[in-house]
Amino acid sequence: MNAWRVAAQVCFGGLLLARLAAAGLAQEEPAKPGGASKEEAAKPDAAEPKPFQEVIKGATEHKGYLTVWQKEGKVWVEIPDDRLDKPFFFEANISNSIGERGAYASQMGASAMVVFHRIGNTMQLIARDAAHRAAAGTPAERAVRQSFSDSLIASAPVVSKHEDARNSVLVDARPLLLRDILGYSTDLESAFRLTYALDAANSSFSAIRADEQIAVLSVSAHFSIARLPGFISPENKFPPRPPRTVPDPRSFFVGFVYSFTPLPAEPMRPRLADDRIGYFQTNIADYTADAAPNARVHYINRWRLEKQDPSAQLSEPKQPIVFWIDRNVPERYRPAIRDGILEWNKAFEKIGLRDAIVVRIQPDDADFDTLDARHASVRWFVGADVGFAIGPSVVDPRTGEILDADIGLSDAFTRQARQLVSEELPPRPGSLPLRRESRAECTFASQAVDELGFGMDLLGARGEAAPDGPEADRLALAYLKDIVMHEVGHTLGLRHNFHASTIRTRAQLDDPDYARIHGLAGSVMDYLPINIAPPGERQGEYVMPTLGPYDYWAIEYGYRPLETAQEDAELARIAARSTEAELVFATDEDASSGADGADPEINRFDLGSEPLAYYERRFALSRELWDRMQSRSMKDGESYLVLRRNLERGFRQVGRAAPLVAKYIGGVRTTRDHGGTGRALAEPVAAPMQKQALALLSRELFSEDSFRFQPRFLARVGIDYLDRELPEANDTSSFDLGSRVLKIQAEVLDHLLSQQVAARIISAGYVAERPSELLSLAQLYDALQGSIWSELDGGRDIPRMRRNLQREHLKHLVAALLKPAGDAQADMHSLNRANAIALRARAQRAQAARGLSPEARAHLQETVATIDDALKATPVKAGI
């Protein structure tokens, strides 16, 4: 995506002018009719540049890549003649923020290849288009320049005359940088639904640092809104929600760190991407050769690592990757963070690079900010609703060379996972646009907090680990190391690998000695759940302790030093190992858990070579936690909030596992491969496994005994009265069990009764050697209906929770009859009609049963009437 989102907004007419004006980029007002008056024309031009030495008189010089002059509140950037229209690197990061709804400190922002371009007495900072190119001096290059535009980031007046002795001019830094370059007001509007704007008059430069390789200007930017809205209509579905962490929600400050650095004088030799190995990519459309079927070229993102001694089998690099642990990281967590970073050196040593990564601690008296473009770092941040880690990086857009990376860690892994009273974290806002150029959204850390919390709650309920004891502390630090390994992997260029979790057997997972050497999965780039054994079974490592085989292989592809003449052949040889079972790879786009997720073995938070057995085990662990909570004796004065926390955590485990089980039904196993292996790229999941998954869902999700709790227990599940005013707080006095259960059941039903699943089940018959052995659509629909409506044949009463599920199934059935999609499978419609007729007959007979509650009898009557109406009605096809 374009890093400069201000330039990427789609605007029309006056809206475009308004947005440009808000960003300070709008054109001047049109001249008055008839031109300027005589009086106006006689006035001297206030914008006429002054002599260089007059401007800087009494100013402090910060000499560096760009020399910066400072006098009181005034700041000027000196632009030499030889820098004009010459590309360099510009990076903008967020050092301070307000700590809620995505507005967090210690975050990377954006970067671009930019130039300074002078027009008269205006200096423009322009982001150059690097995504389209052609060979220099060719007609194709002229066509590319005409076809694609650069973007204006900022502009400012030239305030000095040319200094001949220095061959430079001065530019006023206030209008250049005291503006909303990152488009942060858009993020704030998305989070709080209020139109905050940057107030340049009350913004200032907080720090300036420069040397030969960098110029860094830190800004304290004031954002404000004139007034908060008063009356809000109840009909407004998206009301404003002012921030709660600032003294006055009309005003707050955000810190930005702007870095100006040279691009590598000699561009790194790029390395082509391969779809069998997961790297973030720099994609360039090269129009030089018009005979090529696809103009796009894909380079992997990677650091430049070159051996000091190319002839040595093992050599240190000329320039290692240096990660600074920021001084704001608590000292007790620094060893785990250091270990997580340095774990990757094992993979680099395998390819001949010793100490490729170095870790340093930022001194307390350091004069640099680790968010500048010259210091890759790990930083700590806190917030009112925060629970994630992030590992972005920025690259040279010409080659994919990674130039900087800043990992942000929240304190959720150490504090909030071991909470005794405070309740669950709200989800991270999904409305905020990303500002990362080299990675997809990573939610591993935020979900790992819940995994760690579930594990601690269960171990605590067993009496094996007190939340404030040494075992819990060891587990928290192990998870922190795991998170750091994962995020460092992103900063090395690696994408997620959601297939890696399936390579270990149950025996290997239960063997702590094996896991410490080989890992719990093929890669730390997967999302792995906490590995908890059932009572009485051997306990393996709880979390991923080291790199997996895929990680070594991926690093070899991206970083093995290769001679130019041999590179293509060597990379092809390395990539061809993708057929090895331990090197399976699939990433974010392959891992959907909804109806679009076809492969049941490409998931977040599964573990082991028998995923269905893992899910069954997970259901059992959740019920164990619930059973222990229901029989727990509360201590005098102990808060009941622990009961709600454990109840919710168990439901989240069930809610995470159930949709993944459902992916087996109509599932298709996929393979990333190239010619020569003879392997199929897609094949249907075997019928026995689909039927096993269906039976598991029927038992754990859709049966009469799936969710049973003691009324006495539910009556003690309350809310946090002390934090009741928070928007994420539980605001009801009792736990709504029926709604919580139905939410999980409805998600799975939506998937199983979707057109995508029906289409895959039907299409499987075309590629299967023995189609008669596959799970049929009729078998799926019959099994679901039989399980969901099981009370109809036994003459039993139908409890409230079961009625909720049956109504949800009926809603799907009726919708399929009344509003079939235009591309719906014909068999899907006919089977639904047949099932509706059969269900009507069963519901009609069940009404005669004795002992039905009035609610159940009314429910059956309504069911019969609803089906009658649907069968009589004329279907309305979508799109007609």
- Order of adjacent strands in the largest pleated sheet: 8-6-5-4-12-11-10
Count of extended strands: 22
Low-confidence stretches: 1-46, 416-440, 727-731
* Helical content (DSSP H or I, runs of 4+): 25-40%
| Distinct helical segment count | 24
The end-to-end distance, rounded to whole angstroms, is 36 Å
Query: Mind summarizing the main beta sheet?
Result: 7 strands, antiparallel
Number of domains: 3
Strand content: 15-25%
Please tell me how large the radius of gyration is.
Answer: 31 Å
Q: What is the residue-mean pLDDT, rounded to a whole number? A: 87
* Structure classification: alpha+beta
- Form type: globular
Protein described:
With 880 residues, the chain is of the alpha+beta class. A hairpin with a 6-residue loop joins strand 19 and strand 20 (402-410). The protein folds into 3 domains: 5-23 and 47-231 and 238-261, no CATH class; 321-405 and 443-749, no CATH class; 753-872, no CATH class.
List keywords for this structure.
880 residues; alpha+beta; 3 domains; seven-stranded antiparallel β-sheet; six-stranded mixed β-sheet; 24 helices; 16% strand; disordered N terminus
